[in-house]
Write a structure and sequence with these properties.
Length: 441
């Protein structure tokens, strides 16, 4: 890739060797979302998920801390827990009956008497734990790399934008309605970079879906002045400033009324006028590498890689914990109708992503380059918005920043080799209190 010129090789979305390098250079090193605190509220609660292609168990402990460890028995490697989630006192491998506590420690084995003294030290043969676990306002992250920066530094200035979804009132957020899981034959990066900045496709690919959800309303006219791309450390948020576009796309009048009359005034009081205006506008976002969300539509998802041409999508409805149950129910229905596997918009995206990746199976086709130059000269030193800012919601700047972070990590031998690209100017500050962004400094 050459991001100064604005192009990316098609091999980035196809080559098996590149994919294997991603598992080592990115997914084995960065902070990855593994669960929301609302999914494991009580001791013994657990969920299973993946960090890269490494299966993990996320379990709440008696002291209310969270442990994350590999979902693989150290005896013969069998998958230990086959459930998506639940509550357990122990995890027992169905191959030979090795039993582990909710921290992954080996507690005993079937027919333990067959082991002679000195055959095994149980303290050394538990399920392998991750290096570090940390939370940010309800989101639980983990990393395999003990040298990774703190989660706060990893998220950097992007925390200011996450607050719109996670910290808009005192109760915080929660995931509700269970998990929707489905598989798309595509490279995981295709979806992640779409959510990080590709507003360009919306008015074209989603035109009929938008009209179906809004009673015939079209997407707003193109605005290259008062819409933005914001990125920090590879994380990105593209957004308008109309304050209601995404809310309308849900097609739920009760939700629209609640958001406009109740939630947005709360956001303004808690986070400032600027973020209350951003919230609800046409927008999409990705936390590098593989978590994406739509703040106004309330869909939250992960892109779990299953090979260079296969991705498992896990998606939830994210809401404020203090919302009335009626609004939570309406939001859940709206998310399923728009961004569920058979949703009016998800079907458009899935078809586009699948075909964008499958064409690269052609040897001659994948020798070509992909264009990422749109808006390359629109960088803006905005006085209020944190991060690296480009004007114009239709552009490729966040996608370029995503691939630059990808390239930095793919070519770095250690975290010390990863360049500082001015993604952490708000370091050490509580971003909720920065009502006017950079002007609050």
């Amino acid at each position: 890739m050459n991001l100064e010129e604005g192009w990316v090789s098609r091999d980035v979305f196809f080559d098996p060797a590149i994919y294997e390098a991603e598992m080592r250079q990115i997914f084995a090193r960065v902070w990855l979302f593994v669960a929301h605190e609302s999914q494991v509220p009580k001791p013994g609660d657990f969920v299973t998920t993946y960090m890269g292609e490494d299966g993990v168990i996320v379990a709440r402990q008696k002291d209310m801390s969270v442990n994350v460890f590999l979902n693989s028995c150290p005896h013969r490697g069998n998958k230990v827990c086959h459930a998506d989630g639940g509550n357990a006192r122990r995890f027992v491998c169905n191959y030979h009956g090795w039993a582990f506590d909710t921290a992954g420690k080996l507690m005993g084995m079937n027919e333990e008497r067959c082991y002679d003294p000195g055959d095994i030290d149980k303290s050394e043969w538990g399920m392998k734990s991750v290096a570090k676990v940390a939370t940010f306002k309800g989101l639980i992250f983990a990393t395999f790399d003990p040298t990774a920066p703190s989660l706060e530094d990893y998220l950097g200035d992007y925390r200011w934008y996450l607050d719109c979804m996670l910290d808009s009132d005192d109760g915080g957020s929660e995931l509700i309605g269970g998990t929707m899981k489905f598989v798309i034959p595509m490279n995981w990066k295709m979806a992640a970079e779409n959510f990080i900045g590709d507003a360009y496709h919306a008015a074209w690919s989603h035109d009929s879906g938008a009209k179906a959800m809004t009673g015939g309303m079209a997407f707003p006219e193109l605005d290259l002045h008062n819409t933005f791309h914001a990125s920090a450390n590879g994380h990105g948020h593209e957004f308008g400033m109309d304050g209601f576009g995404d809310i309308m796309l849900l097609g739920r009048p009760k939700v629209t009324e609640y958001f406009m009359q109740v939630l947005k005034p709360r956001i303004e009081a808690r986070l400032g006028k600027l973020r209350s205006t951003i919230f609800g506008s046409i927008a999409s976002a990705t936390v590098f590498p593989n978590v994406s969300y739509l703040p106004g539509i309330s869909t939250f998802r992960t892109w779990l890689p299953k090979g260079p041409d296969k991705t498992e999508v896990r998606t939830w409805t994210i809401v404020n914990r203090n919302m009335p149950d009626e609004i939570k129910d309406e939001l859940t229905k709206g998310v399923m109708q728009t961004f569920g596997p058979s949703g009016t918009f998800e079907m458009d995206d899935g078809e586009n992503w699948e075909n964008s990746c499958s064409t690269n199976k052609g040897f001659v086709t994948r020798q070509g380059r992909l264009h990422y130059r749109c808006g390359i000269s629109r960088k803006d030193d905005h006085p209020e918005l944190p991060g690296i800012i480009y004007r114009g919601q239709f552009g490729d700047s966040n996608q370029r920043a995503f691939h630059r972070r990808w390239l930095d990590l793919m070519t770095a031998e250690s975290w010390n080799d990863v360049p500082d690209r001015q993604g952490n100017r708000l370091k050490g500050r509580e971003t909720r209190d920065l009502h006017n962004g950079l002007r609050s400094l």
